[in-house]
Design goal:
mainly alpha; 71% helix; two-stranded antiparallel sheet
Length: 236
């Protein structure tokens, strides 16, 4: 549409033409229906999995942080952004291009805190569809290693002289245990990342009551640096 870009590649749209730009963007990029929503939800799930993996790798002692920094450097060279910023941008794009009905369904609450009862998501089939579809990449990522370990355990037991029945039971236990561990790690990473992201979005007013923030700023840190340190600490 001929609008200029800022240094990060974002379109600079005049205030009086925002609605026009958004309408044309939706016309060009918005999902046409269920199939389009499914494709976008799978991409959202895959990109969230990549963010979770980034967090898990970064938490590895000694080698984790250098690995993340190396990946960030590569993404900055390729895309002009860190891997976190790049993946979050992809997620925002896919979310914005969902149908209005699916965007509304994803925003619905499963629990109504105000009235202490089940939220509207429970009665909306699209909410189930969104949650299940977005979880597919993560589920697949934990199943593949679990199945590989189960096959290895099965083969090892057979090689040691066990019957097929005994080997099958060992394989099943191995798959169940390894799958639970992997799913737990992924869930923990997602929760920690969510908490960290929430803190980064908080304003000075929202963090005014935080004793940790006051202590960090008393040490000479700016509000932004103190907030970043608090977010990093909350994620570990």
């Amino acid at each position: 549409m001929g609008f200029p870009l800022d240094q990060d590649g974002n379109v600079l749209v005049p205030a009086d033409r925002v609605e026009e730009y958004q309408a044309k963007w939706r016309e060009k990029n918005q999902s046409a229906g269920v199939a389009g929503d499914v494709t976008r939800l799978l991409k959202i799930g895959a990109n969230n999995l990549a963010l979770d993996t980034r967090y898990l790798v970064g938490a590895i002692p000694v080698i984790g942080e250098p690995i993340v920094k190396a990946v960030d450097a590569a993404d900055k060279w390729l895309h002009g952004k860190s891997s976190k910023e790049y993946l979050e941008g992809l997620i925002e794009y896919e979310q914005a291009s969902l149908t209005p009905q699916m965007r509304q369904a994803r925003a619905e609450d499963w629990w109504d805190e105000k009235n202490s009862r089940l939220g509207p998501a429970w009665s909306d089939p699209r909410s189930y569809m969104a949650a299940l579809t977005e979880s597919v990449p993560g589920t697949a990522a934990t199943m593949v290693p679990a199945m590989a370990l189960a096959r290895a355990a099965y083969g090892a037991k057979l090689a040691a002289g066990a019957t097929k029945e005994v080997a099958a039971k060992v394989a099943a236990r191995t798959a169940m245990f390894s799958g639970a561990v992997l799913e737990g790690a992924q869930g923990g990473a997602q929760s920690a990342r969510s908490v960290s992201d929430d803190i980064v979005r908080m304003t000075p007013a929202q963090l005014a009551g935080s004793q940790a923030m006051r202590q960090l700023m008393a040490q000479g840190l700016s509000f932004e640096d103190a907030r970043a340190a608090l977010a990093k600490d909350a994620a570990t």
